[in-house]
Amino acid sequence: MRRVFCPPKELYDGKPCASDPNGVVLRPFEELIESGAVVGLNFPVALNPALAKTIGTMMKIDYQRAVQLRIPKMDAHPERHYRPTVFICDEYQNFATVGGDNPTGDERFLSISRQPKCIPIVATQSISSLKDALPNEGVKTLLQALRNKVFLTTTDPETARYASELCGKADRTRISYTVSESSTNANVSWLSGRTSSSKGSVSASKAYQKHKEPLFEEKVFFDLKNAQSVVVAFDGVSPLPPTYCYLKPDFLPIDMSWFEQERIAFDPERVQQ
Q: How far apart are the first and last CA of the chain?
């Protein structure tokens, strides 16, 4: 840990280091972003959960600071082309930071990330896991900054409830039928015990009533299959209606549809063919 994250001063000065002759110092994120480099952190949380969270959070904050510093540079040189940069974080609940006067809150970064051409993509287990990691109402502030949301299958009722409410409701027409029968001078038969009458009438009515129902019930998110999702997207100008989205694992051919991959049931021999 010390060798990777606390290299000797000689390496920063470009001098040979006897204790770490093959050591290389990571360049600043400002240079890495502009050069198109890919930086990844692979730290098993099981080895040291507290240390893994600390290092991941600090690297995230350092990256966010470098992205925000692009804004004054873009304003000073509008004629220059700046490449887009992508931030991808799995198990995001372990590294999320929000709240109050915290200048390094993710909700502040996400709200201005479009200006420096940053594309943030985060994945978390559930809404409940985010609530456990963030203080007070920080989850609501953070979620509203994430404009596009993809919901996979879940077993968390709170996540299903949030997704159903986010998808909204629609007017549905409910049809009801009513059949009534009336008679006069009704008598009871001594043989059958049923009522009978010499005069009777039957009427039927049909009624239409509008009411609001969720576009996607909570049960829908519990029943999603593998590689199925419900997407609430935004195209940059207007929100798109919530819809089903069929995903594709990256190891399958790019020209294979979801329905075909479901039919072959991920048979390796068929995939290679």
A: 45
List the CATH number of the domain containing 80: 3.40.50.300
Which candidate, 90, 81, 95, 69, places its Cα nearest to that of 36? 81
Could you state, in chain order, the average pLDDT of each consecutive group of 10 residues for the chain (273 residues)?
81 82 85 92 84 90 93 91 93 84 78 92 92 81 90 93 92 84 71 70 83 90 90 90 88 80 63 51
User: How far is it, in rounded angstroms, from Cα 190 to Cα 79?
Assistant: 101
Q: What is the full DSSP assignment across 74-134?
A: HHH-TTS----EEEEESSGGGT----TT-TT-HHHHHHHTTTTTEEEEE--S-HHHHHHHS
Based on the domain organization, do 94 and 131 belong to the same domain? yes
- State the total domains in the chain: 2
Do 60 and 150 lie in one domain? The reply is yes
- Looking at the structure, tell me whether residues 186 and 239 fall in a common domain: no
Give this prediction's pTM.
0.77
Domain that holds residue 110: 2-172+216-272
Distance CA 116, CA 80 (A): 13
Backbone phi and psi for residue 64, each to the nearest 5 degrees, phi listed first: -60, -40
